[in-house]
Every structure is written in structure tokens, then in C-alpha cells.
Give the backbone structure.
Amino acid sequence: MANPGWERSESPFHAGELAIQARLGAQERMDKQGRRVIREYLPEQHRQFFAQLPYVIVGSVDVSGYIWASILVGEPGFLSSPDEHSLQVMAKPLYGDPLATNLADGMDIGLLGIELHTRRRNRMNGTVTAISDDGFQVRVGQSFGNCPQYIQARMFRLDEYDQTTPKPIHALSKFTEAERNLITTSDTFFIATAYQDESAGAAKGVDVSHRGGKPGFVRIDDDFTLTIPDFAGNCHFNTFGNLELNPHGGLLFVDFDQGNLLYLTGTAEVIWSGDEVSNYAGAERLLRFYLQQGYRVESSLPLRWSNPEFSRFLDDTGSW
């Protein structure tokens, strides 16, 4: 049985996404593609995929409007889909994760299901409809799959853990040596953005997505600023479309060896052209992130991964 796509007359994209698609001459093509692949429910394949995951990436907005990217962890099955319009999450935020204070009934939320070892990923956004002592439930707003581009393949191991055990937490307002070391050696991070104005209709909400490249692809410009290349993608421009209308964003960096997590929130802008873009090998544009606050939590993630398989996917410039 075929899975119907977007069945509303209105676009599955909001004004920010449409503006960027139009700027780059892709709006007509993306309208057709979006109506085909974006849905207001979880197809059976996505329901099965989420159920087999031991972790999920989450995007949320705090009461001050700051946006955060987080990670939730559990034994496979901690994510389940009672019906095609709902996702049940049976996990609590890790120690020190901002999601612990952000989570609220009725809030917008973004989720990214991603398997690094198979390079599969599916995204959804929606609304929290219920919270319990063990987790929460989300009603699906939009759901769609992503291609495997830029995902560094690596195997994982889930260790036993106790979420209540305190871990060292370091609050930060600038990058110290510890944060610099993690960022400059990272080949992966996650970014959360949001546009929640009611004018966006069914396209409003929170998005969280993956970014990848060779270690060092994220450049630290000073104590507060990061510059990140944006390579060719699916042209949905969910992240950049949100930033077009709301400059706030949150980044999550994962230490795959030690289990340290770096949560950053701030504002961002897009550098569309110029020498700076052309000097970044393979980049079509740049994302510049300005830190406002963050937390580094030591050894809080009970997952460990193998080294990535860069050579299968990246050329010598870091492009695909």
C-alpha cells in the first residue's frame, strides 16, 4: 500500500524555507518533492525504525526562547508508535541535559532518529501531548526521511547507566580549551532551530538535524564564534529556513570516545557568498554561530562508538 504524502493545499514549507528555496531557484522542484515525501504521520517503516533505536536526538525551546539540541537514550524499544500519529518516548533526559527543564505539555519538539552504523535517518517534529514519570508522548506534525549524506558510519555500544548519578557540569559563556578540543576533533554535531509563529500553519515547529564532515570542518573563530560549511543537501532548507525568521539555534557535540556532551545555544547567520565561502573547499554557503551560553557534561552519555569510516564517503577536500 502506497504512503500518501502531504495532503493539505498549503505548502509543507513555511515562509522562511520558501524564501531560501526561491532564492536558489529550487522552489518549484521542492514543492513537488515536499508534497511527495513530507507527511503528517509516521509510515510503517519509520515506526519500525524508531522502535529499534537506542538513542534519539531532540530539539527544544526553553522559556527564554533559547533553543537546545539534546540526546535521549534507552534500550531499543524505548521509542514506540502506538499509532501512526503518535510517538511514545520512555526515557528521561540525561543528567545535566537542558531538556529536563524545557520539557512541558503542549510544547513544540523536534526529533531525529539516526543510525550512524547504517547511515539511516528519519526526522519528525510535533507537539508534546502528555508527560509521565517515565517519559512523554508526541503527536506527529511532520515526518520525512533523509538521505545518508555526510553521516560518518560507526558502530556503537550501550553501557549500563544511572541517570540520577551526578556528573561534572561546566557552565560556559565562551570556549575554553576543553570545548575547543572537542569541537575541533568532531566529525559530527547536531543543530536545533525553530519557527513557531502561528502564521506558519502546519509547517511551524522545532527541527533538529545532523551535520557531518572531516574532523576540523567546524572552525573556531574566537572565544564565542564558530563557522561551519554547508555542503549540497536535499534543498528543503529546514535549518536555514528557520534561521531566516528566527536566528536562535542550539548545537550538540558528542565525544564518541568519552561520552562527554557539549550543549551550546546562541544565534546564527548564513554567509551566502563571497571569498570566505569560496575559500572553504566544497562549501556552498557558511553557517556562523555565536555562542550565548552552554554546558559541558562529563561522561554523561552511556554510548561509545567505533572510529568512523571516512574514506568511504569523503574526498580529500572533505566534500562528498
